[in-house]
């Protein structure tokens, strides 16, 4: 990607190769720390634990090589022993952050071991920025890969190991906040009308039907108003119809409901009438007889309600 308008990168890259440190360890290599680390990591190699194997091979107990960085961690108070350098090894990251890349994520770590560390040794480290990449865009965002090289030394200033630690300093993409669902009063749900509300969650408009005389009825009820049978089921209807009548509600106001609130009495193609909100209409110019079709408005609390919009657009 082009680095146009990234002239400030010159300041960051001028620090590549600059050595920071030396920084000393708080404690010498010791068996209690080795034992606890091995227990945490599930390591049971007797070379590190039995107090015999290490001495037989190296003349002293030794630590697992992968504990290299453990011995020089700053601790919870983020400070090092007296005599450690106080220069700032994170200058490059701060420069990048000041220029609009505030987020950071660790990418990978590579360690190189030159020999085992022995009990009683006290190590120190220096660090340097090895590279700053060109601007990259990833799934996390746009930014720069920064590689830091740490060199670890014994008390005789001999190199005992190295670690490369790579970070991605980036700016996350702007995310569009999802529209908040309207929070409306919840309906009263009973055994008679549960099918209606459950159907809406499946984006289906269902109407109660008498199984004795096949009459459709709405709102749902326990008995057929025509034949008085208590037997019923429900059928999915087309959702197409026309505005039979309407009212524009101004008061009272309800949470999650637009004001003014046009409400239509919709005569469905199947002959039954339902009351529902009207959307995509001008409350001052609603037409009786206008063809409409059902839509499903998802609200908070998993509530779905039917609304009707004009066929062919507003």
UniProtKB/TrEMBL annotation:
SUPFAM superfamilies for this protein: Nucleic acid-binding proteins, Thioesterase/thiol ester dehydrase-isomerase
InterPro entries given in the database record: ChsH2_C (IPR002878), ChsH2_Znr (IPR022002), FAS1-like_DH_region (IPR039569), HotDog_dom_sf (IPR029069), NA-bd_OB-fold (IPR012340), Thioester_dehydratase-like (IPR052513)
UniProt protein name: DNA-binding protein
UniProt organism field: Crenobacter intestini
Taxonomy, superkingdom: Bacteria
Keywords, in A-Z order: DNA-binding
Residue span, ChsH2 C-terminal OB-fold domain: 235-296
A Pfam family hit: zf-ChsH2
């Amino acid at each position: 990607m082009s680095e146009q308008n990234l002239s400030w990168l010159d300041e960051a890259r001028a620090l590549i190769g600059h050595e920071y440190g030396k920084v000393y360890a708080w404690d010498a290599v010791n068996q209690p720390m080795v034992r606890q680390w091995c227990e945490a990591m599930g390591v049971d190699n007797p070379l590190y634990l039995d107090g015999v194997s290490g001495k037989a091979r190296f003349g002293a107990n030794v630590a697992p090589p992968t504990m290299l960085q453990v011995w020089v961690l700053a601790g919870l108070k983020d400070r090092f022993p007296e005599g450690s350098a106080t220069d700032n090894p994170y200058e490059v990251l701060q420069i990048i952050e000041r220029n609009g890349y505030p987020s950071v994520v660790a990418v990978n770590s590579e360690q190189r071991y030159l020999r085992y560390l022995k009990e009683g040794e006290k190590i120190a480290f220096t660090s340097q920025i090895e590279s700053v990449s060109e601007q990259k865009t990833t799934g996390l965002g746009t930014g720069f890969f920064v590689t830091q090289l740490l060199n670890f030394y014994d008390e005789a200033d001999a190199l005992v190991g190295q670690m490369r630690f790579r970070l991605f300093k980036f700016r996350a993409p702007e995310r569009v906040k999802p529209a908040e669902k309207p929070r409306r009063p919840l309906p009263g749900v009973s055994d008679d009308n549960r099918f209606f509300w459950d159907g809406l969650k499946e984006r289906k408009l269902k109407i109660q039907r008498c199984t004795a005389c096949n009459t459709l009825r709405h709102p749902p009820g326990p008995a057929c108003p025509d034949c008085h049978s208590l037997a019923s089921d429900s059928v999915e209807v087309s959702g197409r119809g026309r505005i039979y009548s309407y009212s524009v509600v101004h008061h009272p106001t309800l949470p999650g409901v637009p004001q003014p609130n046009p409400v239509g009495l919709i005569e469905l193609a199947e002959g039954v009438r339902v009351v529902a909100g009207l959307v995509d209409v001008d409350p001052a110019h609603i037409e009786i007889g206008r063809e409409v079709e059902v839509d499903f408005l998802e609200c908070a609390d998993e509530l779905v309600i039917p609304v009707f919009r004009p066929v062919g657009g507003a």
